[in-house]
Amino acid sequence: MHLERLKGEKRMEQQKQLSVGQWFWTIFLLGIPLVNIILLLVWGFGSPSPRKNFALAVLLFELIGVIIAVVVVIFMVSVAGYSLS
């Protein structure tokens, strides 16, 4: 009985995995501006799917990038403003 349950769990785990073609289209769609943000939000905060953790990781990575970019821009503007006065 325990062995049957393990086989069932393994079968369910294999069904959750994405094929190469599905990953191809996932990455392709994420290359389209604006569509990528919408899809990442849907996959990340929607119902559980194999793409959920991937989407959340990409969103976190992008958020960190935006924060760093804002800090750099603020720093550059303040340095440029200081040097002009």
Automatic annotation (TrEMBL):
Organism: Lederbergia galactosidilytica
Keyword terms: Membrane, Transmembrane, Transmembrane helix
Chain segments annotated as transmembrane: 20-43, 55-82
Domain of life: Bacteria
Protein's name in the database: Uncharacterized protein
